[in-house]
Design brief:
The complex is a heterodimer of chains A (184) and B (414).
Chain A (H helix, E strand, L loop, with lengths): L25 H5 E6 L10 E6 L4 E5 L4 H4 L4 E5 L23 E2 L4 E7 L3 E5 L4 E6 L1 H5 L2 H5 L8 E5 L4 H7 L3 H11 L1
Antiparallel strand pairs in A: 1-2, 2-3, 3-9, 4-6, 5-8, 6-7, 8-9
Chain B lengths: L1 H10 L6 E7 L3 H16 L1 H4 L11 H17 L2 E2 L7 E8 L3 H5 L1 H5 L1 H9 L11 H9 L3 H7 L12 E8 L2 E9 L10 E2 L2 E2 L5 H13 L3 E6 L7 E15 L8 H14 L3 E9 L5 H9 L2 E9 L5 H5 L7 E6 L12 E13 L4 E8 L5 H6 L5 E2 L2 H5 L3 E11 L11
Helix pairs in contact in B: 2-8, 10-11
The chains are: A alpha+beta (184), B alpha+beta (414).
Chain lengths: 184, 414
C-alpha cells in the first residue's frame, strides 16, 4: 500500500471500521493456535500453544483433552516439577525477562491432578518462562471453563531463532481439526 | 580565502542577525610555540629574565580574534558575538598534513601518559591529542628533555596549510499538535529487522515538510506519548515537537506558520497539524511530563458476546476514580517488563448503538491501557468491563479524543 491507499476518516467511531465482521473472542482475534497431540491416543493429553503476533505464547489444553471433553474436575495444579524446581518461583525480570526458567519443548510446566489421572503439561516451545498463570493456581476450574482465555496455564517467550522450526513441528488448526474429527 | 568565506556567509541562506566566528588551529602549534619560547629564553636570557614569562605571550588565536571577526562583521552585515550567545557559528579550520607526525613527539616526551591514552579508545575516541592536554603535558617536561626530542627553534614547515570552514546553527524547536484520522499509520517509522512494515508514519509525513520549509539538515521527532497504528488521534491533537538541526530559516512570521501548516496539511489528509509555534528547548521536557502525568480521554467501540441490558452498562457511568490493577498487557509483554501498575479510570460514559454494540467514553490517568480495560486481558487487568458487566466484552475500535496537556507554550517576548 502507499500514500494514496490511506484515507482520512473523521466520522464517528462506529463509521470508522467494518462492522460486518463476525464477532471473535480475544483469543481468536489476536492468537494463532498450534497443537501438540499426545502419541498415546487413549490418554489424549492434547495441548495447544496460542501464539500472539508478538511471539508471546500461552500454553493451554486443546479442545480434545479429556479434562475438557469429559468435564473432569482438577483437584490441584502442581508446579513442583522436581524436588528442586518449583515453577511458581519463576522470576523473569525486566524487558529481557532475565532469569526466566529455560524451557525445552518437553519440559514440564506443571501436573494437573484429576480424580483418576495426573496430566503433565509440557512447554511445547523452546522458550523462557515468563509466568505461570496465578489465576489457575488458585482456581483450577478456570482451566476447564475458560481453557483458551483466563484458563491458560502459562505464558512463555519462545526463542526467536527456534520459533519457525517449532511451528513446523506442530499441527495447524486445520490439520488438528481433521485428525480429531477422524477420531470420532 | 576570507573573501570566499564572507561570500559564503552572505549567500548561505541562514536568516541570522548575529554570528560567532572562530578558528581552529593545528595542535602542533602548541609544541612549536613551546619550542620558540625556549629559543627566546635561551638567546634573550639577559633581556627577558624577570620581565617576561611564557604566559605573557598573547596566543596566536587571540590575536586572530582581535582582528578578523571585526573585519568580517562589516562585510556580512551580522553582529559578532563571542562565546555561545549567538546561534550561528562559522568555524575556520586550519589543517596541516604533518600535524599528526609532529605531535607524536609527545609520546617520546611523556611516554607513560600518551601510551595509556592510546589504550583507552572509548575515552579518547577523538584522538589522544588535544590542545589543552598537550599544553598541560609540556608543562611537566624539562627543557633539556624537550630539546633532545624537538628542534629549538622549531623547523620551518615545508608543506602548506589547508584552510577550510564550516557553518552551523544551534537547533530550534518547532512545536504543535497533530491529529491522525486513519487506522493504518504508525506514529513513528515501523521497521522489523530493517524492513518497513508501513510505507510512512506521522513523524515522516510532518517531518519531511518541516525539513523542507525550514531548509534544515535533520529533524528529530518528540511527542507526548503515542497511539497504536489502529487508533485514531482526534480532538485538539497530540502535542509534539521537532528539533530542527542546522536550519537556514529560524525566524517565522505569522504567515510563515500559516504556510507551513498548509504545506503539512495538504501533504496527506489523514495527518493534520494545528497550533504550530517555536518553543524553547527548556519547554520540551513538558512533553515527557505530559506523557507520564496527564489525563487522556478516549472513545471505545465495544461489543458484547451476548445482548446486554442498557441499565447494566449504564452502571459504568456511576464509577468515579476507579482504581485498576493492570498487569503488563500480553500484547506488549515482549518488550516491557512483567509488572503490575495501578491506573485510574476517572469517569466513563456509555451510548447504546444496538443490542450488542455500545460506545464507551473514558477519561483515565496517563499510561492506562484502554483495550485491556475493556476485555480484561484474561483477568490481567482488574477490574475490567467483562468482570463489571458480567458478559464477555471486546473492543472493536479505539480513538484518543483528547490529550490534556497545554501545548505549545509560547515564550513571551522579553
Amino acid at each position: 500500500s502507499d500514500l494514496s491507499s490511506i484515507k482520512a476518516n473523521k466520522g464517528p467511531i462506529e463509521d470508522s471500521i467494518d462492522l460486518t465482521e463476525k464477532y471473535q473472542s480475544v483469543t481468536e482475534r489476536y492468537y494463532t493456535p498450534y497443537y501438540k497431540i499426545d502419541e498415546d491416543r487413549t490418554r489424549k493429553n492434547d495441548l495447544c500453544l496460542q501464539l500472539h503476533s508478538n511471539r508471546i505464547s500461552l500454553v493451554t489444553l486443546a479442545p480434545s483433552h479429556p479434562i475438557l471433553t469429559k468435564n473432569l474436575q482438577i483437584k490441584e495444579v502442581d508446579c513442583q516439577v522436581t524436588k528442586s524446581l518449583d515453577r511458581k518461583k519463576n522470576k523473569a525480570v525486566g524487558k529481557g525477562k532475565k532469569g526466566g526458567q529455560n524451557l525445552d519443548p518437553t519440559s514440564i510446566l506443571c501436573h494437573l491432578e484429576t480424580e483418576d489421572a495426573r496430566y503433565a503439561v509440557e512447554a511445547i516451545a523452546p522458550s523462557k518462562l515468563i509466568c505461570m498463570n496465578k489465576l489457575v493456581l488458585d482456581n483450577p476450574s478456570l482451566i476447564r471453563n475458560r481453557p483458551d482465555a483466563e484458563g491458560h496455564i502459562a505464558i512463555l517467550l519462545p526463542y526467536l531463532g527456534q520459533i519457525e522450526e517449532c511451528k513446523a513441528s506442530l499441527l495447524s488448526k486445520e490439520a488438528y481439526d481433521k485428525i480429531i474429527s477422524e477420531e470420532r | 580565502k576570507m573573501q570566499q568565506i564572507i561570500n559564503s556567509i552572505k549567500t548561505s541562506g541562514y536568516d541570522a542577525d548575529r554570528f560567532t566566528l572562530s578558528i581552529s588551529l593545528p595542535i602542533s602549534l602548541s609544541i612549536r610555540e613551546h619550542s620558540l619560547w625556549l629559543y627566546y629564553e635561551k638567546e634573550g636570557k639577559e633581556i627577558l629574565e624577570g620581565k617576561l614569562k611564557k604566559e605573557d605571550i598573547v596566543p596566536l588565536k587571540q590575536i586572530w580574534k582581535y582582528i578578523y571577526p571585526h573585519n568580517v562583521t562589516s562585510e556580512v552585515g551580522l553582529i559578532h558575538e563571542s562565546g555561545d550567545t549567538a546561534d550561528f557559528f562559522v568555524e575556520l579550520v586550519i589543517q596541516w598534513e604533518k600535524d599528526e607526525i609532529e605531535m607524536q613527539v609527545m609520546e617520546r616526551l611523556c611516554p607513560k601518559e600518551y601510551k595509556e591514552r592510546a589504550k583507552k579508545t572509548n575515552v579518547y575516541n577523538m584522538g589522544v591529542y588535544s590542545r589543552q592536554g598537550v599544553d598541560n603535558s609540556l608543562g611537566s617536561v624539562s627543557h633539556t628533555k624537550f630539546m633532545e626530542e624537538f628542534s629549538v627553534p622549531p623547523p620551518v614547515p615545508d608543506t602548506p596549510f589547508q584552510l577550510d570552514f564550516r557553518m552551523s546553527r544551534s537547533s530550534i524547536w518547532l512545536g504543535g499538535r497533530y491529529c491522525k484520522y486513519t487506522r493504518e499509520l504508525p506514529q513513528t517509522p515501523w521497521l522489523i529487522k530493517g524492513v518497513r512494515k508501513c510505507f510512512s508514519s506521522v513523524e515522516e509525513l510532518i517531518g519531511d515538510k518541516v525539513k523542507e520549509f525550514l531548509d534544515c539538515e535533520q529533524v528529530k521527532f518528540l511527542a507526548s506519548g503515542r497511539e497504536d497504528v489502529d487508533v485514531r488521534m482526534l480532538g485538539s491533537g497530540r502535542p509534539f515537537a521537532f528539533e530542527c538541526v542546522n536550519s537556514k530559516k529560524t525566524k517565522l512570521s505569522q504567515s510563515d506558520f500559516e504556510d507551513l501548516t498548509k504545506l503539512i496539511n495538504d501533504h496527506h489528509k489523514a495527518v493534520q497539524v494545528n497550533s504550530l509555534a517555536l518553543v524553547s528547548k527548556s519547554s520540551i521536557k513538558r512533553l515527557k511530563q505530559g506523557e507520564e502525568e496527564k489525563r487522556k480521554q478516549y472513545t471505545a467501540l465495544c461489543i458484547t458476546k451476548d445482548p446486554y441490558e442498557l441499565e447494566n452498562i449504564k452502571k459504568l457511568e456511576e464509577f468515579k476514580d476507579l482504581v485498576l490493577k493492570q498487569e503488563t498487557p500480553i500484547r506488549v509483554l515482549h518488550r516491557r517488563a512483567n509488572a503490575i501498575r495501578d491506573k485510574i479510570v476517572h469517569s466513563m460514559t456509555v451510548t447504546q448503538l444496538n443490542s450488542t454494540l455500545f460506545k464507551l467514553g473514558v477519561i483515565s490517568s496517563a499510561g492506562t491501557y484502554i483495550k485491556e480495560l475493556v476485555h480484561g486481558d484474561f483477568e490481567r487487568t482488574k477490574p475490567n468491563l467483562c468482570s463489571i458487566l458480567g458478559v464477555d466484552t471486546d473492543i472493536l475500535a479505539l480513538d484518543v479524543t483528547e490529550v490534556f496537556l497545554e501545548w505549545p507554550l509560547v515564550e513571551k517576548e522579553a
